[in-house]
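Go through this chain.

——
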Amino acid sequence: MNAAASSSDPLDLTVKGDGADPHEPHWISRSAFQILVFVLVFIQAGLMAALYHENWWLVVPLVLLAGHFMHGVLIGFHEASHGLLRKNRKFNEFDGVFIGILSLTSFSLYRAAHQTHHMHLATERDEELWPFVDPQTPRWLRRMAAFLELTFGLWFTPYLFLRTFFRANSPIRNKRVRKRIWQEIIGIVVFWSVVVATVAWFGLWKYYLCLYLLPAMMAANLQSWRKYVEHVGLRGTSATGATRSIVDEGWTGKVLAYTLLHEPFHGLHHRHLGMHHWELPARAAELAPRTEEETAPYSSYRLAVLDLLRDLADPKVGPQWRSQPKSPEAPSSMAMPG
């Protein structure tokens, strides 16, 4: 696992990794985020028309599609936190802050907390996987956190990062970074206050509900489920030992990976932090396990989800749990894919 590169600029929290393969991927792969945004805008336009004409049979599938593509855009938020979404840094920052406003999360806060996820993957200092990395947390608390994050992710995820920011001994100590986080939090509050007031004034609740709230809730929950698939239940110490990856060779799997900005190749992302998402599929062979603790890639999301479900009764992450006694009536499974 690569550590984050140091920088003289305290706001430059992007991470650098290994160089990419010299082969240039197809422009369709390199333009995945822009294509996702275009498709989402097209879906939203159709959804607005369907709502105007009260065509509810069309509204339902369009809301579901909007939720999936919003999930893809949220992964773009993650790419922006690594400085990999746009070549121009200012555009990268703008996209990150804007997506953060829509997802109720400060971009600078997410970037700072997410850095701990890479620097201290699956350890007690991994802020993004709290409370599952802390052996001192009782099972009821870990179960409750899992329920809330997987069901109400749109609100629990911002809480998770705000906890990192406000708690005692926060790892985010740089005054410039904290000032910027405060500015972004205030911006989020002001933006949504204006939006909700406008919706209430003009009675646009059905548009707010179907164009934003329902698909955003779905996207946030999908984001949480994907995060859990990637890490919960694993006890390894390496990028592939603490991460589930999915390499689906079918055309549906490839399309899904494309709309998720190749995030299913998650072990490779942890191994090559500075690599663009479109370069990851070419390195899929690196996911083959080399030690007993490493997790072989799954051939589908279905198999990975089934493995995760066996761990949700007693959710844990990280090697620190190996020395802990098993929780009564909820043994943790470490099953590997066949």
